[in-house]
Amino acid sequence: MIPVLLATIVALLPLASAHIALWHPSMYGFNVTQQTFPYDNRPVAPLQDFSFDQWWFHGHLDFPPNDGDIFPLPAGQAATAELGCNKGVTSFFASSEGRTDVSQGDNPCPSDDGSFPSGAMHTTGFDDLTGCALAIAYESDVHKIKPEDFTVFSVNQTCVWTKNTDFQVPERMPPCPEGGCHCAWFWIHAPDSGSEQNYMNGFRCNITGSASDVPLAKPQVPRRCGADPQHGKPDATPGNCTYGAKQPFYWFQKEQNNMFEDAFAPPFYTDLYNFKDGAQDDIFQDSYPNGIPAPIPEQTVVPTPVLNPGAASSTPTAPSSSTSAPQGHPSALFRGGNGKARGGKNDARSLKTIRDLRQKQKISR
Ligand SMILES: *[C@@H]1O[C@H](CO)[C@@H](O)[C@H](O)[C@H]1NC(C)=O
Ligand SMILES: *[C@@H]1O[C@H](CO)[C@@H](O)[C@H](O)[C@H]1NC(C)=O
Ligand SMILES: *[C@@H]1O[C@H](CO)[C@@H](O)[C@H](O)[C@H]1NC(C)=O
Ligand SMILES: *[C@@H]1O[C@H](CO)[C@@H](O)[C@H](O)[C@H]1NC(C)=O
Asked: What value, to the nearest 5°, has the Cα angle with vertex 212 and ends 211 and 218?
């Protein structure tokens, strides 16, 4: 009896053909099912080769959240999002197709045969994760938002490994306008299993506990600048990075792409495009008081962000063995060990100097 029942529940869930979405009542398309559109446009369906209206907000603008449903983002703290291949694995299972809680702990997509990671996660293992991102637009009217208005403010480089996924919210996020902001979750997975797929789920969001009024800078298109050994680039090219506020990747659609990489070299929310793990603390109008030089591979001037203006001391701090700077990230090497920006005049550093610094940091650890 019990096995029969379980089999029935599993059969009700279209898990096999599913992928991953961010689930929350504040999202557009919260109740969209396989039957709502003439094609499978569930929030978990991947987006590729679509017209703008089809991919933007997942084509769910006519399926807005209920009034008052808004995703709170506490400035300076973590917000936990639920990622899953079916609403049934999230705390919102009651309005899922099966109306049943089919969660298995923190597993974003329990598979029929018990294997992990399931196909929907599109990864061969933990070392093959490519990160996902939350972006924000300071606009309460969803119809006014354009793709170039979204700024990535938080990255989790190890998603989609767990259902409950933390996103660190930068401490200096300014308050949202009356009526709130709009956010979206973005993910592009590793090319191993089904390549050119994009994911976007839009939702209403609001910054809470804000303590800063400095607006976000105008977001620029991210650039490929991290070590990329699979494509013949063993070393990072920090001068080629986009620094500061960055747009999400819009890739492999019929219209309005900002990324043109081929199917075997997708753009990722990792160091590969200068998206450091966690809060994107350098996205504000005052983050780079000395400006940002034009990014090109030969660029040797790497800009120094001032992450906490007012609190930053004018005395340059020597690199230390502190672990507060994220390791392996190009710009981490240009900050003092306390995470504060260092003074201006030594901005230009060759890759050799970077390696020497890294070596010293290793030794002093
Ligand atoms: C989604 O469905 C649930 C249950 O049927 C309902 O209570 C809720 O209002 C719906 N939400 C939206 C945004 O349509
Ligand atoms: C990414 O999410 C996981 C799971 O919630 C969490 O353990 C990890 O700390 C998060 N990473 C960052 C940088 O917040
Ligand atoms: C957003 O959060 C702020 C601060 O908590 C609050 O005053 C405001 O009413 C919220 N906006 C919405 C639309 O919920
Ligand atoms: C620099 O960035 C551009 C844009 O992303 C990319 O096409 C190019 O391959 C990168 N060059 C190097 C040397 O990393």
From this structure: 145
Tell me the domain boundaries of the chain. Answer: 1-291
Whether 189 is in the pocket of ligand 4, judged by its Cβ within 6 Å, is no
**Residue whose CA lies nearest to ligand 3 atom number 6:** 208
Residue 302 has which token pair? 């790497």
CATH of segment(s) 1-291: 2.70.50
Tell me, rounded to whole angstroms, the distance of Cα 81 from its chain centroid: 12
Is 28 within 8 Å of 61 (Cβ atoms)?
yes
Structure confidence by residue, pLDDT tens digits, 84-108: 999 999 999 999 999 999 999 999 9
Q: Is the CB of 277 under 6 A from ligand 2?
A: yes
Segment 327-350, tens digit of pLDDT: 333 333 332 222 223 223 222 333
Is any ligand 1 atom within 6 A of the Cβ of residue 36? no
Q: Report the separation in Å between the CA atom of 86 and the middle of ligand 3, taken as the mean of its atom positions.
A: 29
